[in-house]
Please model this.
Amino acid sequence: MNRKSAFTLIELLVVVLIIGILAAVAVPQYRKAVTRAKNAEALLTLRQIAQAIEMYDLANNGPLPEAYSNDFSILGMKEPASDNWSYNFVCLDGGPLYCGIFANRKENMDVGDATYILQKLIVERKTLPGTYVLKNTLLGRKEQGDGSVVVTSQTASADKETCNRAGGTFTQDGCVIL
Model:
């Protein structure tokens, strides 16, 4: 008797099922890795800005910008160029040094859409460990006569969903990327 060897339908279905299970396990890990890679640029830049603020404060012990600004010239650095992120900082002077440095995602959002912002904090001349994740919701957009656009948004602590999307760890203190 001469028999040809071939796969049965059952064997083929078992192989397809195993591949499906492996893909279901791998896809969420892949998405998390992609998010971490995209955030790496912002995390590195936030650390550099925090170090520049600390060095400026140690060298000059002078006033730092009090308003929401992306003018980094006072720190002796250019505005970080990025296709994915814009950077701003607020330093409150006249008391203990408190600076918040923000990385805002550059993306087209409609009113009501939400994304996340990364924040690094310097409190009393010490950079706090970790980078905090905030949820930012676009409330409105209005074009001005000179071509500029005024954007209204609401920023709050990140919820678990936003934290997971940003690749952070949700703790009792909020969402942190270490």
